[in-house]
Every structure is written in C-alpha cells, then in structure tokens.
C-alpha cells in the first residue's frame, strides 16, 4: 500500500497501523530524504514494513491513500494520475482552517475534497475514509484506540476494499455510509471533532451506536 503525503501525523498513523496488520507500506513525500527520516523514527510492530520514498513511488502501491494537506492535494496528485489509473484511491483529506480555538470547515467547489480528488484523477476510483481519527492515538498502537470510520464512495467494490483496509487496523471499525456525495458532510464534521478535542483537551473518537 502507498500513502501519498504520508509524513504528516495522519499519514504516519495509518502507516503504523497498516504495517502492524502485516502489510508493507510505502510512505511518500516530495522529499525522499524527509520520508526516510520520518520512517526511521516510527515504531513498527507486526510483520509488515514501512519504507520512505517519493510520492511517485508511493503511487505505485496496489491501494493508495492520500494524506496530503488539503491546499496542496490537487497539485500533488495530478502529476500522479497515470500511476493511479485503475486503482482505488482513499482520500482522508479535510479542508479546514483554524479560527481562534475552533476549526472551521471550508467547502470546496465540488462539495468535498474527495470530489476534488476524483476530478483530478478521472482514471482512479476515489473513496473517502479516516477523517475523524485522532492522529496521536492512531500512531500509538498501544493507545487503546477504538473508533468507527465512515467510508463512502460511488463504487461498491472500492468501498469494500476500503472497509477491508480499515477493519485490518487494530481498534478501527469501518461503516459504509454511501456514495461520494456523503464525503462533504463527513469531511466537515471533522472540524467539530477537532474543536471538541481542543476545547476539552482530549483525543476523542467517533463511535456509532446501534450497528
């Protein structure tokens, strides 16, 4: 599996959890040396491996997660389009800005960052997932993290593959939501999740009761 823009907190957390599940992970960056430096500092358990590399190398993974900051995501992925054709690409990107002690959601022209990503990658199948996870707990496999992950996408097979990825990570449960039209509300709710954490000085998670 590859993670484009994987050196940030969210990308590192996904890499550690996926490797702990026994998979080999390519963590990409614009700066390969930076990626290798970050990976060298990660605590890797299980039988999987994590390798630091360029974003181009990360895009060669069979399944690719995009964890790039929202304001750079389209410019980052567009040159990778030929490498991502025919693949499931998982967006965990949120368009957020901080105002005082709150996070505020921005609404992209197409309604969500996942939709922006799909437009930039017409040959790939984009799903959206893992937006509400606290990165600090995600990276620490001994944190006791328990969280539900909302998964949406227009293709049922791509949603299933994304759910399988999520369910393979310890402490996470995937919940299918529906089409990519649901990505906007899911991404926007991340602002509320982070604001709760700021206000109460916690690392809260989303749990869906009744399922």
State the order of secondary-structure elements, H for helix, E for strand: EHEHEHEHHEEEHEHEHEH
Shape: globular
Tally of DSSP β-strands: 10
Average pLDDT, rounded to a whole number, is: 97
Write structural notes for this entry.
The chain has 211 residues and is of the alpha/beta class. It has nine helices and ten strands. The protein has helices spanning 9-20, 32-40, 55-58, 73-77, 81-84, 113-120, 135-139, 156-168, 183-200; strands spanning 2-4, 24-29, 49-54, 63-66, 88-91, 96-99, 102-105, 125-128, 147-153, 172-178. The strands form two sheets. The chain has an eight-stranded mixed sheet with strand order 3-2-1-4-5-8-9-10, sandwiched between helices. The protein has a two-stranded antiparallel sheet with strand order 6-7. β9, α8 and β10 form a beta-alpha-beta unit. It is globular, with a radius of gyration of 16 Å. 47% of the residues are buried. The mean pLDDT is 97.
Entry keywords:
211 residues; alpha/beta; 8-stranded mixed β-sheet; two-stranded antiparallel ribbon; 9 helices; 37% helix; globular
Short synopsis of the structure:
The chain has 211 residues and is an alpha/beta fold. 37% of the residues lie in helices and 23% in strands. It is built from nine helices and ten strands.
Question: Can you lay out the helices and strands and say which pair or pack?
Answer:
Elements lengths: L1 E3 L4 H12 L3 E6 L2 H9 L8 E6 H4 L4 E4 L6 H5 L3 H4 L3 E4 L4 E4 L2 E4 L7 H8 L4 E4 L6 H5 L7 E7 L2 H13 L3 E7 L4 H18 L11
Parallel strand pairs: 1-2, 1-4, 2-3, 4-5, 5-8, 9-10
Antiparallel strand pairs: 6-7, 8-9
């Amino acid at each position: 599996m590859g993670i484009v823009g994987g050196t940030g907190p969210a990308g590192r957390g996904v890499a550690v959890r996926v490797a702990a599940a026994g998979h080999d992970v390519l963590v990409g960056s614009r700066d390969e040396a930076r990626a290798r430096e970050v990976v060298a500092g990660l605590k890797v358990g299980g039988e999987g491996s994590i390798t630091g590399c360029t974003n181009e190398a990360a895009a060669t993974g069979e399944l690719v997660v995009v964890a790039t900051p929202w304001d750079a995501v389209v410019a980052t992925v567009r040159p990778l389009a030929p490498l991502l054709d025919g693949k499931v690409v998982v967006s965990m990107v949120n368009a957020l800005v901080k105002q005082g002690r709150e996070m505020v959601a921005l609404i992209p022209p197409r309604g969500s960052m996942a939709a922006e990503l799909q437009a930039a990658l017409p040959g790939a199948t984009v799903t959206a997932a893992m937006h509400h996870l606290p990165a600090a707990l995600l990276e620490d496999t001994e944190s006791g993290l328990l969280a539900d992950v909302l998964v949406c996408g227009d293709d049922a097979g791509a949603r299933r593959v994304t759910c399988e990825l999520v369910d393979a990570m310890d402490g996470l449960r995937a919940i299918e939501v529906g089409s990519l039209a649901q990505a906007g509300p899911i991404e926007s709710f991340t602002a509320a999740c982070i604001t709760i954490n700021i206000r109460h000085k916690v690392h809260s998670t989303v749990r869906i009761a009744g399922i």
